[in-house]
Amino acid sequence: MLLGLFHWLNERLFLEMTDRSPLQEAFEKAGQGHVFRYFDELEPEERSRLIDQASEVDLKELENLVLEHIKGQKKAGLGTGNLEPARYIASPKKRGDTAVWAEAEMQGAEALRAGRVAAFTVAGGQGTRLGFDGPKGTFPITPVRGKPLFRVFAEKILATARHYKVAIPWFIMTSEANHIQTIVFFRENGFFGLEENGVHFFKQGRMPAVDFDGKILLETQGAIAMSPDGHGGSLRALVRSGALEIMRKAGIDIISYFQVDNPLLMPLDPAFIGFHLERESEMSSKMVGKTDPGEKVGVFCLRGDQLEVIEYSDLPVNLSQERESSGQLRYLAGSIAIHLISREFAQRAGGDDPSYRLPFHRAEKKVACVDSGGATVNPQSPNGVKFEMFVFDALRFAKNPLVVETLREEEFSPVKNATGVDSAQSCSDDMLRQWVRWLEAAGVDIQTDETGLSGISFEISPLFADSEKAFLEKWKSLALKPPIVEGFYLE
Ligand code: UTP
Predict the structure, then answer these.
(1) Model pLDDT, residue 19
(2) What is the model's pLDDT at position 72?
(3) Taking Cα atoms as reference points, which of 290, 340, 313, 330 lies closest to residue 108?
(4) Which long-range contacts (CB under 8 A, 24 or more apart) does 413-420 make?
(5) Which residues does residue 288 pair with via DSSP β-bridges, in sequence order?
(6) In angstroms, what is the span from residue 355 Cα to ligand 1's centroid?
(7) Are residues 189 and 123 both part of a single domain?
(8) Same domain, yes or no, for 290 and 164?
(9) Which residue has a Cα nearest atom 10 of ligand 1?
(10) Quick check: CB of 416 below 6 Å from ligand 1?
(11) Would 65 be classed as within a structural domain?
């Protein structure tokens, strides 16, 4: 009976669609009618999936993007003529004022204790460079236990929640492609000890990929090649998913934003939160000093009194090479994608007000798509353009944006590539180096190479200690110190 009804409904749908539905007409009018080229040959489920996908596409927005980014009518950018390096609050381990930092830490701790802060991970990326089959957050990263990235963050959040005796909700942005797998992973792992109802998943938006003539690419005969709309899509996804509303009801006004690929960071840093509140910033960012002019990170710059991140490829070489008399790079402040965002600002920047709209950036990519014969092919070189928003573009709309220095060895070791620089190996080594430094600070003698890497592998859980300060206290309190041997694990 039910099955009969289902077929009847699909049949109706088919009739409506073959009757040149308004959707199909709109696509034809926009010069994208080919999206429905194979429609009549599709199975009913494929047809309804294609209709769902097509309904997601904002044809007007796409037309503008094609005009701007493909047809060469790109508005002249803001240029880089009047840039100056951004100011930042220096780390107390560099030349920062320890008393000022201690004060900020106290303020931030108070906000954490009052339950005003939520953790927010953007995990909707495709992780193509890593080439891992599954959501990146499920990638095993720690040196001994092989804990996945999600577990490392979960334990850090849990450690902070226990420390401040408060529930800290965790919002995780996924994408259409990894949403279900991510949730299943958390379920299978008992939410890593977190309260299930304190972890919120929501999907980001998608954008169609187009070819170099601006035509939407079909991934298969019945599916548009859609991809996530970039980490900048997190702002509108926070609004659209209702996540901000959940936060508002829970009395949360500070969102601690970080990426899924950098397990070294502190997801909830009291001093950073304190500065953010003290300066009444709507969006604060952490920076690390660039290692060399060519390092591929965006740089915080001032344009007049407006703070921006200039992508490494857009910063003129002569500027990137300028140095202070001390020899330090002038354009030093590298962006590491750690931000604090005020909830009200996210509401504005992710809402419908066009004056807050984040720009889309163009990226040429290899996009699997159907060839003229209708078969899906994987191209060997870029054949299309994807459109993505970047979260740091919201800085230009924020009041009192703030940059705070952190140390690379303490907070930045992203897992981007399968091997080499910024890979799982380099990240796991950096974790080990951090724990070596903690042990050394506690007076333990460990053999290391010249990079500070020990000959043995071991692991310290964030549940034992999530910072050097916490480690020193905990270690001191241990009546029986564990032997530092290959594979030892502290929790
Ligand atoms: P990357 O820019 O490194 O992209 O994302 P990626 O998709 O993970 O990896 P590649 O470029 O395909 O190799 C930085 C962070 O932003 C998130 C990622 O999950 C990662 O945490 N991100 C990126 C999103 O959440 N959505 C996106 O659309 C893009």
Answers:
(1) 55
(2) 80
(3) 340
(4) 413/262, 413/263, 413/264, 414/259, 414/261, 414/262, 414/336, 415/130, 415/136, 415/139, 415/141, 415/149, 415/261, 415/262, 415/263, 416/129, 416/130, 416/261, 417/129, 417/130, 418/129, 418/130, 418/131
(5) 334
(6) 25
(7) yes
(8) yes
(9) 127
(10) yes
(11) no
Q: Report how far ligand 1's centroid is from the alpha carbon of 260 (Å).
A: 8
Q: What is the pLDDT of residue 77?
A: 53
CB 371 within 8 A of CB 379: no
76 belongs to a structural domain: no
pLDDT in tens, 325-369: 999 999 999 999 999 999 999 999 999 999 999 999 999 999 999
| H-run or E-run covering 302 | strand 299-303
Tokens found for residue 182: 């991510």
Task: For residue 340, give the CATH number of its domain.
Answer: 3.90.550.10
CA–CA separation, 166 vs 91, rounded Å? Answer: 27
**Nearest protein CA to atom 18 of ligand 1, as residue:** 125
What are the tokens at 446? Answer: 């460990």
- Record the pTM: 0.93
- Among 66, 59, 68, smallest CA distance to 28 is for 59
CA 402 to ligand 1 centroid distance, Å:
24
Q: Say how far apart CA 210 and CA 407 lie, in whole Å.
A: 40
Give me the domain span that covers residue 428: 423-491
Give the amino acid at 276. H
